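Hi F.,

I've been meaning to write this up properly since the lab meeting, where we talked about keeping a consistent format for the predictions we share between groups. The idea is simple: the sequence comes first, exactly as it goes in, then the C-alpha cells exactly as they come out, then a line or two of notes. No screenshots and no reformatting. I'm using this chain as the first example so we have something concrete to point to.
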Amino acid sequence: MYSLYLLGQLVLNDFVKADIIQVACIGDSITYGSHSSDKVKYSYPAQLSMRLDTRYGIGKYNVTNLGVSGATVQRDGDKPYDQTAAYNVLVSNSWDIAFLMLGTNDAKIYNWNQTNFIHDYKILINNFNATEKYVLIPPPLMKDGTDDMNATVINELLPQLIPSVQNSSKIIDIFSAFGGSEKWQTDFPSAGCQIDDNTWEFCAYYCSEQSCDQCHPNDVGYARLAEAVYDVTFLSNRRLKQSRDTFQQRMGLGINLGNTLEAPKVGMWQKMPTAAVFDAYKAANFSNVRIPCRWDYHTNHSEPYKIDADFMDQVEQVVLWTIERDLIAIVNTHHEKWLDEADENFDVLLPRFLAIWQQVATKFANISTNYLAFEIFNEPHYMTIHQLNTLNRQALSIIRNISGNENRIVFLGGLQYNNPSYLIHNFSSLWLPDEDDYIMIEIHNYDPYGYAGKKPPSQYFWGTSNDISTLWTWFQNVSHVVGSIPIYYGEFGCTHYQNISSGRHDWYEQHRLAINSYGVAASVWDDNANFQLLNRDNLSNLSWDNDTILALGKIPALTNNY
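Output, unedited:
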C-alpha cells in the first residue's frame, strides 16, 4: 500500500493495520517527487513501494511520502520541516522504518549555518518514533547557484556532515549512488547538465527531453534513488523485521528436501535437485522448504574447521531456488551424530560445531529474514539436556552477533528426536533466551511409530476414534505448554508400507486438519524413498503421490501418479 503526501493533505490506506510494516519517507521536494512525470507513480517513495510490493506481496508494506517542497532541517530556515503538516503526521504515528533526506534547501545561501544544521537534524531524528531510522545523503547539485543553492555545501559538506548526525550503519549514500564524489568540482560539467550532452553520464538522472533540472531527479533518477534505498535497507537485510507469529503464518505447510544434502556425498542417496523441483513445490502450493544439511561430511576436523566451498555453494543454490519462488527456506544441521553421541568429548568437539554455524550464518546473513530461518540442531537424542542447552545458547549467540541475523527466526527443539511428548513433560528444562522474540519451538513426530515410521511396520491400521483423539490431544498439550511461542512441526510422515485402506490418507489428512486448527507451521517429510511424496528419480519427469498431496490440502499439479 502506498500513501502520498500531496498539497498539504495526507491520504493513508489502512494505516492502522498491525500486520502492515509502516515506512515513512521524510524530506523535501526530492522526496516529494518534483520534476517527475507523475509523483504518485514515479517519486522515489512510490517506486520503493512498487519494489516492496513486487518482492514481498501487495499490502505487506505501507510507504508514506512525507516530502515537503522547500523544507529545511534548520528551524531558522525559510521553511522548517518541523512546522509543516507532514511533520505533524510524522510525530503523531509510530513507524517501523523511516528514511530522512534533507539538507538541499538548507544549502541555500540565505539558510546555511553548519552548527545549526547538525544540531537541528539530531533533534528532528529524535523527535519521532520509528524502530529503524536511516538518514540519506542527498544527490549532487549539478550546477552551482541553482535555486540559490551552494554546490560546495551540497557536494562537499553534506556528505561529510550527515554521517555525524546518525549511526554510520544507518546512513544511505545517495550522493555516491548518483555519481557524486569529492572531486565533483573538476568532474562535473561547469555549466551543469545539458540536454544531449554526454559529458557526465549521471546527467541522465536529471534531464528530460525538454530540460535538465540540475537539482531534482527525473523518473530514472528517482528509480535509482529507490533502488539504492532498497538495496541497502531491504536487499542487504539490515532490517526486514517481522514478528515470529507472522512468520509462522507465512510458513504454512511446506515440505522437506530429504535424503539430499544430508547424504555422505551429494547425489549418493538422491540426485541434486534442479529448479524444476522447486517449481513443483510452488505449483503444489507448498509454502516452505526445509533443507536438511549434514555439515560433518564437508567440514575439516582441524581449526578453523572450514566448510567445503562447493558444498556451501550447493546449499546456497537450493536456498536461492526456494526463495526465488516466494517460499520460505529452513537451513539446519542434520544428523550430526559426531556431536550428539560425543558423550564426554562433547566440550572438545563443540567448537567445530560452533564454527560451522559461524560460517553458515555469515554465508546467509544477507538473505532476507522474511525468507530464511535457521534450525540449530536436528533431533538430538543421545546428548544430555545440559549439553543441548549449552549448544543452543552458544550457537544462538554466534548467529545473533552476525549482522543480518539479529531478527532471523531460529528454531529450538527438545530431546528424544524433537518428540512432542518430551516437550510436554520437560519444557521447563529447555533453555530459552530472554528477550529474544525470534525463537520458535520445533517438534517432529512419526507416531504411532509402529504404524507411521517403522520399516516394516508393526501396526497395520490407523484411523480409529482413539487414534484421532490421541493426535489432537498432543497438539493441544504442546500448544498449552509452549504458550505464546510459535510452533514449527518440522517433520511428520507415514511410510509407503501403509496405503489408503490401512489409513495412510486419513493419517495425513488429520495431521493437516490439526496443523491448520492450531495454526502451527509445518514441513511434511519427503525423502524420495519410503516417505516419498514427489518422485524425483527422473528430474525431467517429476510426479506426485497425488492421494497424499490431496490429503495435505495441496494441488497435485503434475499429471503423473504412481
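Notes:
Residues 1-18, 182-186, 236-240 have pLDDT under 50 and may be disordered.
The radius of gyration is 28 Å.

If this format works for you, I'll send the rest the same way.

G.
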